[in-house]
TrEMBL record:
Protein name: Orotidine 5'-phosphate decarboxylase
Reported function: Catalyzes the decarboxylation of orotidine 5'-monophosphate (OMP) to uridine 5'-monophosphate (UMP).
Taxonomic placement: Bacteria, Pseudomonadati, Pseudomonadota, Alphaproteobacteria, Hyphomicrobiales
Active site: 59 (for ompdecase activity), 61 (proton donor), 61 (for ompdecase activity), 64 (for ompdecase activity)
GO molecular function terms noted in the UniProt entry: orotidine-5'-phosphate decarboxylase activity
Length: 227
């Protein structure tokens, strides 16, 4: 169960991330490193975590012309990370899949950010609502040969039906009972997300902002086990 909980190291800098990983100890085996850390030494931190026996999810949400995406994925594949995100545009995903062959990294297609709702999507120029676009992107990711999908728990059941049993379904926006939603607009509890078909849960603030992060992580793991 521990490898299904991914703790987002959404902290100020690499030193704070190292300290947080130290506080969490053996309670956590999987960490997410996003843009804030990537641009401040996070890739070296990823290597350290991997050498220490941890799994790393590199959340960089790649999107560019095919060749640039392919070059990025090829380089990332050499780091030894377990997962990396690609915005789920068909051409970008196909380029990423070709570049990742033999590396062992699981490519995750990002469908619709959990901080966005229908009004946000309309403002950005999308005609579809979040659920419709998530469904379309999931179909395209499956057809491209991606390893998994990132979506909110609200869409996890639909996505699981589309991608089948073998692809990962990674759900951010996880909030245990009583936790504040923050800037997330499509959230769910750990148990509800797993029941909906999620394979991995990404949790950041409810753990890293807790007075006792390790105890908070263990409580979430217990809720996951009960689901």
């Amino acid at each position: 169960m521990r490898e299904r909980l991914i703790v987002g190291l959404d902290v100020a800098d690499v030193d704070a991330a190292r300290a947080m990983a130290g506080r969490l100890g053996d309670a956590v085996s999987f960490y997410k490193i996003g843009h804030g850390l990537v641009f401040s030494g996070g890739l070296e931190l990823a290597r350290e975590l991997i050498e220490g026996g941890k799994h790393v999810f590199l959340d960089v949400k790649l999107l560019d012309i095919d060749n640039t995406v392919a070059n990025g994925v090829a380089a990332i594949g050499k780091l030894g990370v377990s997962m990396v995100t690609i915005h789920a545009y068909p051409k970008a995903m196909r380029a990423a899949v070709a570049a990742a062959k033999g590396s062992g990294v699981t490519l995750l297609g990002v469908t619709v950010l959990t901080s966005m709702d229908a009004a946000d999507m309309a403002e950005a120029g999308y005609a579809n609502d979040p659920a419709a676009l998530v469904k379309r992107r999931a179909e395209q990711a499956r057809d491209a040969g991606m390893g998994g999908i990132v979506c909110s728990a609200a869409e996890a059941e639909t996505v699981r039906a589309i991608v089948g049993r073998d692809m990962a379904v990674v759900t951010p926006g996880i909030r245990p009972a009583g936790a504040a939603a923050g800037d997330q607009k499509r959230v769910a509890s750990p148990a509800d997300a797993l029941r909906a078909g999620a394979s991995h849960l990404v949790v950041a603030r409810p753990i890293i902002a807790a007075d006792d992060p390790k105890r908070a992580a263990e409580a979430i793991l217990a809720e996951m086990a009960g689901a």
